[in-house]
């Protein structure tokens, strides 16, 4: 998983990542090779090389977590209220199509309506992730509506109509193989 420092990681995940970096620092001090550290810690060699450069320039403190990359703009009370409203589902807030559920844009709009606080889609993703919410978790258990909604979804919603992709290059014309040689 690619990530920037603190981007959407829960506090527990940030602590785990910091523990890995600090363990790597101990291994660097012992002179362990990058590949061995990466293998033993279950991370990429590229991450270990980046950590090693930071360690060489700033010591162990350079590998400590600086906390979340962004400050949460909702108070704990506001988050509790938002979470209750999210659990009520999108229909309770005027989103009437049952097949789409909550999207990042819808949650952003709900936050703006409730608290007059603006969040980007990326900011909403980080906010939800920090609080343990994950993508594609249905509000209601699947299968409650029978086979008809599933069939409608398969036939009408997925896959969406797609336009052909446009490329910067002209299409390659196949050679004419219909003419015969005499």
Automatic annotation (TrEMBL):
Winged helix-turn helix domain boundaries: 99-156
Coiled-coil stretches: none
SUPFAM superfamilies recorded: Homeodomain-like (SSF46689)
Superkingdom classification of source: Bacteria
Positions of the UniProt region annotated as Disordered: 159-182
The protein's name in its UniProt record: Winged helix-turn-helix domain-containing protein
